[in-house]
Each structure stands twice: as C-alpha cells, then as structure tokens.
C-alpha cells in the first residue's frame, strides 16, 4: 500500500488527484484527519476513490481559503472572517488553535494552525506563538479555536486560560491580540476579551 500526504502536494498534483484518483492501494493523510472518517463507505474501490477525491478537494479548498485572505484587511469584513474560519475548521475532529498574523496595516501575513490537541483538550505553548509572530514580523494577531463535535461556542475554562496566556505573552513583545473566535459546527462567535472563570 502506498502513502500520500495531501499537505505536501502542489495544487496541480491535488487537481490531478481529484480528476484521476489512484485507487484503493493508496492511503491518504490530509490537513484534516477527521474528514476521512466522515466520508461515505461502500464498495471498496468506489469508496476509496470517492474518499481520495473529496480529501484532495477539501485540501484545495483550505488552501484557496488561506490564499484568499493573505494581504487582506480581514477584520474589516466580519462575514469573510466567519466564512474563512468555517472552511478552515470544517470536519476537524480535534481542538486546534489557529493564529492569523497581521502586519502594521492589519493585513494578513499568514494563517497557521499552531497547536492541535484531542477532541476535548488542547495544550498551548505561548512562547511558540511569540516566536512565530516575531519571525513573521507581525504587529497583531487574531486567534480562533474550534469545538469539534459540539454546537456550543462557550469556551471552557482551560481554553480561556490558554487565550489569556497567549495574549499576555504577545503583549510582552508589543504584539496585540485583536480578537479570538470560537468555531462550533457552523457557528462562529467572536470573544474579544474572554473573562477568566
């Protein structure tokens, strides 16, 4: 059985995979491991090809969404932020912290998953966020995390603590956290200053 990491394929290779999937002898790994479990089962070869096509298409969609926000003043367009976050977290089966790095004109430099945890727990290392923010030369960020398998956008105590830890660490190097979003299913809620429990 061969192995294919969708994250490492070029857009052209992903498009080719959508048009001509390799068949049941190829195992996929994508940016969203939970997506594979959501896809339909049935006839082994047909199901395998369908899964490959859908995973490759999802990976392309996530990349297009990321490319569409780079260089934009995203926070001025709340509907675009929500759409971007829904696409980014679609099908995710584990807690993930997304950090969107902004330049001095509040344009997106990059959007990166900084940490991924389990379905109910996420460990955040603020120093890693600070390190990446300084590497990119950003002046501000906004963050988001998902609530897999839930429609409840109320962040848990540990999630709020993680947000405050990141905010405090970035403030020490004069980088501001402008906003934090919680994504649960299709719901996206902005939490500017979540209160500690």
TrEMBL record:
<dbReference type="InterPro" id="IPR001405">
    <property type="entry name" value="UPF0758"/>
</dbReference>
<keyword id="KW-0378">Hydrolase</keyword>
<dbReference type="Pfam" id="PF04002">
    <property type="entry name" value="RadC"/>
</dbReference>
<keyword id="KW-0482">Metalloprotease</keyword>
<dbReference type="InterPro" id="IPR025657">
    <property type="entry name" value="RadC_JAB"/>
</dbReference>
<feature type="domain" description="RadC-like JAB">
    <location>
        <begin position="76"/>
        <end position="193"/>
    </location>
</feature>
<keyword id="KW-0645">Protease</keyword>
<keyword id="KW-0614">Plasmid</keyword>
<protein>
    <submittedName>
        <fullName>JAB domain-containing protein</fullName>
    </submittedName>
</protein>
């Amino acid at each position: 059985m061969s192995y294919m990491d969708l994250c490492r394929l070029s857009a052209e290779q992903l498009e080719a995979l959508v048009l001509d999937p390799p068949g049941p002898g190829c195992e996929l790994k994508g940016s969203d491991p939970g997506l594979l479990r959501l896809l339909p089962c049935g006839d082994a070869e047909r199901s395998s090809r369908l899964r490959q096509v859908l995973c490759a298409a999802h990976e392309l969609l996530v990349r297009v969404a990321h490319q569409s926000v780079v260089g934009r003043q995203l926070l001025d367009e709340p509907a675009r932020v929500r759409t971007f976050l829904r696409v980014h977290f679609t099908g995710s089966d584990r807690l993930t912290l997304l950090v969107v790095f902004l330049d001095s004109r509040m344009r997106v430099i990059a959007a990166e998953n900084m940490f991924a945890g389990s379905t109910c727990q996420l460990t955040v290392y603020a120093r890693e966020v600070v390190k990446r923010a300084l590497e990119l030369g950003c002046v501000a960020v906004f963050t988001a995390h998902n609530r897999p398998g839930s429609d409840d956008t109320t962040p848990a105590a540990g999630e709020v603590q993680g947000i405050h830890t990141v905010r405090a660490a970035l403030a020490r190097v004069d980088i501001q956290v402008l906003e934090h979003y919680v994504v649960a299913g299709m719901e996206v809620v902005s939490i500017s200053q979540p209160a500690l429990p």
